[in-house]
């Protein structure tokens, strides 16, 4: 994997609830924030990375730290429903508004995009068509997306790991739609709000196929209820194939059976958006990235 050696200081914001974090650890051995930390340290050797759980009542930055003191904030996936009024969603949205106000560039996936959307005045809803489970198919960049550095290297249509039951209903003012597909209209976007900048995707470039399989198993009942599988055994059979491809990514028979290509099976290509965000930050600097024209 190519990397960007740096002395960046990054903050990972993990908005999973404590129960969701533990459930994910039991399933795949790590929380969403721990997955992000692992990827960031591989993409940016030497970076200093902190983690915060903004949905938690006692969440706090490390002593002496401020949001403005970080080079970037990364927002992970989460089972929170941002259209529900709960203490957890209020805290998470408030945290994201503070990130925008601090002028610290941010990146997020799945619920991260939804959090940034709601914080900046947009809206989120349950998926209007169907849950996207395992993979988002045939994602197509918009005209703006084809020219945007977030999607550099992505082809005219591509698949990506994804599992979500909510989606962006309306992007806030000051946003640019970068990609979508038949199931989910907003698959990638840039959001500018209150002096801050967010680049994000609805899918999960950060997760490997083992985590895709784990997510399928955790949400098996939801997938059956949505009509995507006849029963939990169907979900398990599919998850086993995904797991097998994770162990042997060169198996063309499994990739063919699952309808996947190197955009998913090649980790370097799969991580395109995270790498592009970090490389833009390295090339332009924090203030330069904020100043780039939409």
UniProtKB/TrEMBL annotation:
From the record, give the transmembrane residue ranges.
none
Keyword Repeat on entry: no
State the GO CC annotations. cytosol
Q: Provide the GO MF annotations for this entry.
A: transferase activity
Please give the InterPro entries that the UniProt record associates with this protein. ChyE-like, Class_I_gatase-like, GATASE
Annotated Glutamine amidotransferase domain residues: 67-209
Q: Which UniProt keywords apply?
A: Glutamine amidotransferase, Transferase
Q: Does the keyword Transferase apply?
A: yes
Name of the protein this chain belongs to: Glutamine amidotransferase
* Species this protein is from: Methylobacterium durans
Q: Lineage, please?
A: Bacteria, Pseudomonadati, Pseudomonadota, Alphaproteobacteria, Hyphomicrobiales
């Amino acid at each position: 994997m190519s990397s960007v050696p740096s002395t960046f200081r990054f903050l990972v914001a993990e908005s999973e609830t404590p129960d969701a974090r533990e459930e994910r650890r039991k399933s795949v051995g790590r929380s969403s924030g721990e997955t992000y930390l692992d990827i960031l340290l591989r993409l940016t050797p030497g970076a200093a990375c902190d983690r915060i759980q903004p949905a938690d009542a006692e969440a706090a930055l490390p002593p002496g730290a401020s949001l403005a003191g970080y080079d970037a904030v990364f927002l992970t996936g989460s089972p929170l429903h941002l259209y529900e009024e709960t203490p957890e969603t209020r805290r998470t949205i408030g945290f994201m508004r503070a990130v925008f106000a601090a002028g610290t560039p941010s990146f997020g996936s799945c619920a991260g995009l939804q959090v940034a959307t709601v914080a900046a005045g947009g809206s989120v809803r349950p998926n209007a068509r169907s849950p996207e489970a395992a993979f988002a198919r045939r994602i197509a960049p918009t005209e703006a997306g084809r020219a945007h550095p977030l999607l550099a290297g992505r082809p005219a249509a591509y698949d990506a790991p994804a599992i979500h039951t909510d989606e962006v209903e309306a992007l806030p003012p000051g946003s640019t739609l970068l990609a979508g597909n038949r199931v989910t209209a907003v698959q990638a976007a840039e959001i500018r709000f209150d002096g801050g900048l967010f680049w994000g995707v609805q899918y999960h470039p950060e997760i490997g196929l083992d985590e895709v399989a784990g997510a399928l198993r955790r949400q098996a009942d939801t997938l059956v209820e949505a009509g995507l599988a006849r029963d939990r055994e169907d979900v398990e059979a599919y998850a086993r194939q995904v797991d097998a491809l994770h162990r042997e990514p060169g198996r063309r028979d499994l990739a063919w059976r699952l309808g996947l290509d190197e955009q998913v099976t090649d980790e370097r290509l799969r991580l395109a958006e995270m790498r592009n965000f970090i490389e833009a930050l390295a090339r332009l600097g924090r203030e330069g990235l904020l100043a780039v024209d939409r």
